[in-house]
Amino acid sequence: MNDMKVAETDYSKHWGDEDDPASDWSLLCEKAPFAHKEICEFILYVGAGQHLKDYYKWGFSPILLLHCKRAQRAGYKYLCFHN
Q: DSSP 3-state assignment of 33?
């Protein structure tokens, strides 16, 4: 489990409308490998590979992609978005 480097970010101001299928909230509910909607917590993989390009193609917002890029540059493999 040493490779489970997880960064955290408070994303409470950026979720978007949960009724909007293009909002980060809706996309995270659909795409995040770990989602705990009741406590507004989602984890995305941000390590090496095509993942950030996939997140862009899926329609995540520029602010979410920026958070992912910063976590990746800092050496994290996962990013937890929470309230």
A: coil
